Amino acid sequence: MATPQQKLVFTEAEYLAFERQADERHEYIDGQIRAMAGESMEHARITANLARELGNELKGKPCEPLFKDMKVRSGPAQTAKARWPPKGFFSYPDVVIVCGPVCHDEFRDVVVNPKVIIEVLSKSTEAFDRGEKFKRYRKHNGTLTDYVLIAQDKPYIEHFTRQPDDNWLLKQVEGLEANLFIASLACRLSLAELYDRVPFPQDEEANEEPGENAPDESEEN
């Protein structure tokens, strides 16, 4: 099959065939295949902490967390009579929580019924995570009740919850002493645990030796 460098527009079926044999992860948006950026050490640590804490919180409950290799489809399935160029979105959330996975096809590597999606923000993806990605999740994933954005550089979380009128309510959670409570899962997560081993810029500055960056006053003027 053609690679993303050789062809401009792909169907969902062509994307999935390509992605299932690719060494790296790619997202699909309206016929385009886009390579995903790598992650920082801080991103990896937060994701690992999420895996540990969510695993403990949801053990024995009907909902389960799935991590970065699980895709989510947002949008109606394409048909032979679908418009061209095709419209559709396949993404790799950092965490997707489902209550009984409903899969796109027999390969069982794409879910269509996310309940909670969690993204760890980075400079290269933050605008998309806040904007177009969240717009598509809201529009096409009626099962979604919570959307959570986690900052890397400070203990700060934005938690969006779907309201009965289909609007979304934002709650900001800040500080290592705080907790993120996801009522739809009866799940409480400590920010101190989610940010375990994650250094913040102000901490690194505070740990610098006094005068480390000061000019050498021993030199004559």
Number of strands: 13
Secondary-structure class: alpha+beta
Overall residue-averaged pLDDT value: 89
Which segments are poorly predicted (pLDDT under 50) over 5 or more consecutive residues? 217-221
Shape assignment? globular
How would a crystallographer describe the biggest sheet?
6 strands, mixed
Tally of helical runs? 6
Radius of gyration: 21 Å
- Read across the widest sheet, the strand sequence of neighbours is 3-6-8-9-10-11
Helix and strand string, N-terminal first? HEEHEEEEEEHHEEEEEHH
Strand content: 25-35%
Helix content: 10-25%
Q: Report how far the terminal alpha carbons are from each other.
A: 69 Å
